Amino acid sequence: MNRLEELYYEAKADKWFKRFAVFCRVALAASFIPAGYVKIAGERFAAGLPSNNPLGHYFDALHVTGYYYTFIGIAQIITAILLLIPRTSLLGALMYFAFIVNICVLTYATRFDGTRGITFMLLASLFLLAWNYDRLKHILPFKQPETEPPVLKRPLGVRLRIWFFGGSLAIIAFIIIGTSIYMR
């Protein structure tokens, strides 16, 4: 067992990380429910975005695809529901990641003003995938020794939380500064 896995299992046992994982699941699901509903209802997504904006033009084209547009809405609602159910949250996180990577690339390509928010959603999705590493490691292309979760040799305790949440704040600051420069 390497040190990174020890840190992973320590984080999995920490109540603050568990709460953060639940917060991410609920927040990501809450972002997909209204977006999916708009598509199922047949309304144009982001109706306030003008058609002369590159992303608005994309949404106009997507809206006229008919049942594909509805299919995306249904898939978003299903993904949100899967995220909210603890037993199916990994499947929801995998589906959400597929959606949000596409959306993130699209918003950067069109220099959309909401790119920061989409990037934060991508990071939350990545956190959920990392949170489920113990369930995903069996399909990853790395050699995995079969071991039980270890007894930690050198637990970090509160320092692990400080490193994680401090690092998260640093990443958020980097994204805000980076997108401010990029969007000029």
Lay out the secondary structure.
Blueprint: H1 3-13, H2 15-40, H3 54-63, H4 67-84, H5 89-109, H6 115-131, H7 133-136, H8 158-182
TL;DR of this structure?
The protein has 184 residues and is mainly alpha-helical. It is built from 8 helices and no strands.
Number of domains: 1
Order of helices and strands: HHHHHHHH
What does the main sheet amount to?
A: none
Overall radius of gyration: 19 Å
Helix content: over 70%
The number of helical runs is: 8
Q: Low-confidence spans: pLDDT under 50, at least 5 residues?
A: none
Shape: globular
What is the overall pLDDT average?
Answer: 86
Q: How much strand content do the residues show?
A: under 5%
Number of strands: 0
Helix-strand makeup class: mainly alpha
Distance between the first and last residues' Cα: 46 Å
